[in-house]
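User: Hello! I'm new to structural biology and keep hearing that structure can be predicted from sequence alone. Could you demonstrate with ChsH2 rubredoxin-like zinc ribbon domain-containing protein? Please show me the input and the output so I can see what each looks like.

Assistant: Of course. The first part below is the input, the amino acid sequence of ChsH2 rubredoxin-like zinc ribbon domain-containing protein. The second part is the output, the predicted structure written as tokens.
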Amino acid sequence: MTDRDSAAWWERVAEGRLEVQECSRCGTLRFPARAFCPRCRAEDWRWRAVEPVAEVDSWIVERRTTPPTTIVRVRLARAPHVVMYGNWRAEREPSPGERVGAVFEDGPKVNWVPRP
């Protein structure tokens, strides 16, 4: 759900851009978007593009939907402390530690697919 802090993030996703907030004071990357840095509490930040490559951390399969929907939790490859969620777009289940890439389709969504 979009709120005051996440609206700009969803706009970027709708444009096919993967960006996270970066603290202007300490440089900490953060997701989800929020009004202040969880590390130094600064309220100054900027948007920073990140490489849309990650590793699968875990996942769940929602079987109440038709067809079932797999949601993955990933850690960005170049910022492993940044955790994101998204839809899994492959015919098989993901594997722990699997390298994945973000794709943007079906509106403002981040989908993750296997990457060589």
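User: So the tokens describe the shape?

Assistant: Right, they're a compact way of writing down the 3D structure. Reading them back into a model, for example: The chain has a mean pLDDT of 94.
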